[in-house]
Amino acid sequence: MKPKVGKLSLPIKQWKNYDVLIWLDAPEYPNADWVKSLQKYVRQGGSVFMGSCPWGWAQLSGKNIREEHPMNQVTAIMGVVLADGYCDANQDGGYAVSKNQAGKMHAGQILSYYQELGIAAIPVDAPAYYPLVHAVESIPSGDMILLPALLEYASKLENPHAPNPKKPLGIKDGASRLWVALKSRLWKDIPVAKRVAFLGADDFPGAVSASAKQVAEKFTFDATRPGWQSTGLYLAPGKTLRVGKIKSETKPDSKGQTQGWSLRVGCHRDTLWHKSSWPRWPEITVELPLSEGLEIRTPWGGPVYLVASSDAQPLELTLKGAVKAPLFVLGQTTPREWEKAQTAPGPWAEIVGNECVLTVPSSAVRNLADPTQAITFWDGVITSHCELGAEDIPLRKERFVADVLISAGYMHSGYPVMTHLDVAEARDGQMAHVLDVERLRNEGSWGHFHEWGHNRQKSSWTFSGTGEVTCNLFSLHAGEIMSGIEPWENPWLVGQKESAIKYLKKPDFDSWKGNPGIALVVYAMLQREFGWEAYKRVFSKYHELASSQQPKNDEEKRNQFIIFFSQTVRRDLRPLFTRWGWPENDAILNHSALGRLTPYGGDFQWAGYAPPKGRRVTQDWATQDASPQESKRLVEVSAVNEAIDNGVEFLLSTQMADGSWSDYRSSYPNGQTALSVYTLLKCGIPSSHRAIRRGLSYLRRQPPAKTYSLGIQMMAIEASHEESLLPWMKELQALLLDWQQGSGMWSYPSGATDLSITQYAALGLWSADKMGLKTPRKAWQNLAKGLRSYLVDSQNSAKQSAVTGKSSVPARGFSYRPGGTATGSMTAAGVAVAYLCEDALGEKFRGTPKQATRLAREAGLAWLAENFAVDHNPGAAASRHLYYLYGLERACNLHGLEQMANHDWYQEGAAWLLDHQLEAGHWGGTCETSTCFALLFLRRATLEAVTGGERKVGASQRNSKPTESGVVLHLAQGEPLILWVEVPEVASLERVRYMARPKKGGASRLLKEVRIPATIDDLEAFRFSARVNCPEGDWLIYAEIEAFLAVETTTEVEYSKESSNAKFGFIDSIVKRENNLARSMAQASASASAGGHDPSHAIDGQFHTSWQAPVGDKSPRFEIKLNQIMRVSEITFAHARTKLADSGEGQNPRVTKLHLWLGSSRNPIVVDLNPDASEETTVVFSKKKKIRSLRIEVLESTDDAEKLGLGFSEIELQ
Question: Phi/psi at 920 (nearest 5 deg)?
Fold first, then answer.
């Protein structure tokens, strides 16, 4: 007879009508009556069919399987429980169920076997103890079937052993492992006062001297960074930690617990129950809800932490009973404090940085003079990882914790990242690897980079087979940024290339997915050919997708990655991925947008294949597809000026309202802003211009950042010609000199030194010299000496000197690091640095050092001539193209070279740049950075430093129409204004008078007069130029040329100068961030969001991010719920678009009117907003208002509200 089957969703009274009930649609968390009814149904002969993935349930629910899983609540009384963990594959990569395996997990039968065996020797074929150990973990607390029997059996064991690192418990130590499991399970049931230290606890996590002083410490935690909060305390095994008085704005809940906070003892949170060897007790940490008067005593002790959830509020409390442990906090612990702290008795030390925390044995820091450089290095890794992933640095600081054994692998990701002790202990007289800064700067640490890479990895661009691959993009990136290791030459990757070459002979995608090393090579190829910027833009595209638009399965993920990357680099990359054996489907094969791009199959020369057909691909990938002009055409001055003006307009349009450019996610904080300011100044934008003043003001407010940024800031200060900035320049000069390494070169300032960084440090110091702040000669001498080690040996024959045209030197290039490959960009840098050293040291630079420096400079110029190119960076494949062009301009102009190996380097370079400027005025790659380098080349920015002001072409350079005799007036707009004339016949020339006439009418005024000395023999070589400070306003500039009693007047050239006293309001992210809602925010929600512009961005303190309403949101709304009542005197609103170019008639709509509800008020406040995108609107209350929430509804905007961009970059409370 066929059984009658029903579901557990049926009413309880109907269950008796069914033979079998299937656990479908049952209550998620059944009550006690429901559980008893189902147990009764089974006792009366009914059957229940059920199944679950217990560990998955625990992961999703956050609840305890043993005590809270609904199936366990029903079946535990029957002797069946669901347990954590899973079975290993036993057949063909899967788990075969053809034979009944239940007996192997029947703890009751196995216990009976050992009870009957008694003290007799255990047979070889005896069942494993593991099910008994697992049962101890899995049986609910109320069990009266197996748990009492296990306790009785364990009490009769003779001499059970506790685990320790020297004598771990293995599989054969089953009885001792059972004893350990029971002790671990039951210790919490013992009253706190009666708990004792367990055997083995002194071995790990460690002993505390009996003479160590227990302390009472008062702490204040602000909760702005959730997660474990280090206290610098260590609780000894078997000792009691007591929580004293707690002060918090949040009242305790009904149980007396402080919401949002817990107290943790122990950092080694990995459990080892599943491991075949136990060198320590398998579970040695505890975390309890925080409450006043709480007492904790554990058998193992450990570091003490307060744990803050995301909604925790600031609190003060006192902890008593622990001892001090070494604690260093970056920016807080002084050298004298650290000298005392590193001797503290706790066996585990913590080094706390801005973005991460290291937990190492105290023995590793006993002789560590200063942890600053080590933790700064690891902070830099976090920053670089987030930079690559195009995401914000997480609020919760990342952590590394070292352990004698971890739950999986050599290291594993998560919170914290767990490692073995080999990287955290000082061994064989060597510093612990995780603290050895010199080794880290030179070798990196692949494993650490890899695990933190997992923490940044996103499933939307990680499909099956790439879980151990895409995380290594972060390893390669951090290796380059932090340790100077070229990604393609990274030792770990190099070791995979031979296997990749074999794979390419017979591609098989399943094989590709099964070998992370081979799989990484294709991702590294993309980096090699298109650079990290391509990855950053690709990853940012995923952030902009709504959750519903994210790829869901492997096929969608592969397709989306190919599409995004192809669109980003403007190449159809399908042929490249086909070459690697990636499967194709109709969606990707028939993608019309990709079909319009130029196909690109990749450069496989490294694997022994022919070079790809067609045009070379460079990292300047975001450019037009047109090939560079092969003909050596002459570029028109007007075309160059137009290109420069368009580029300048682009830069001005991308400045943020706080004065910065793209510094939010920059690897080099302040660097892009400094480079943009410098470029604009060199392109003739006066220092009185508000973009320059805002940019310099922004930079002045920032703390000093990396060497690149510092050097370029100094270049910008010198280019501004503002004497008032001298004190600032002096500060930066002193810092840069302090960062110079013993080799004479510079690093980031952490990490290894390299020539690229050193070039900008030298340019910064040269700029200081030009302002009268002379750099010590020793610094230049050391630099000149260190530079020579970057020359690459060459077998080339001697070449004619590009400088003197006489002496012969072999062509030798410069490399990024000593022993590397010569490249165009680094050779141009080496040549420039050598020139700067000789120039700064002057005539007193003599003998062998000067000769060696000169020969290095000439060898570099010979290499540039021999490898001349303007369409790529010689020797660097696809890397740093526009960076190289600016370096070429600098090297040539410093030496006064118009020709390089029969090439007119400027004409050819300018022709290439004009061909590749995009319609918006910028160049590809990292738009602002690439555009700056292109403009500086076109402007011949180095020329002024050498010639004292002569210009050939330039942005905002204007020329008068020739007079009848051919006289032309040239004007280069800048601060000061540079004027010069071209005069065909100069033999009788006596003077040149530069004049200015108000455009609106009025008398002319003399700007400057240049008299021609009678002693000048070669008048054609005399520069008729003048630097003048023109008054503010609109002017018509002209020149009067006097020659042999005749005066000729040029035609007029228009010129405008903005008022330096113009007042403007702007959004200051540095000042405002301190009052931002993120400091007290509990929840933000909106009617809808556009892509990655979610509600949290309006309250995160970052003016570069915003909440934006999407297309189609007819009535945009925004609500913020605070987790505490606040007294508010002002509320400030800033528009979603905060770029200067968006002010006035910007391209995006701005909110002009809104309704504002405070708390539960039913009457909204009507707020009219300033429509200027760079202006804030502040609502001021006559007296402070208490609020717990606020709601905003947009009523009116400047334009169609359906256009993207409507919203807020920040909403703040004061």
Answer: -75, -5
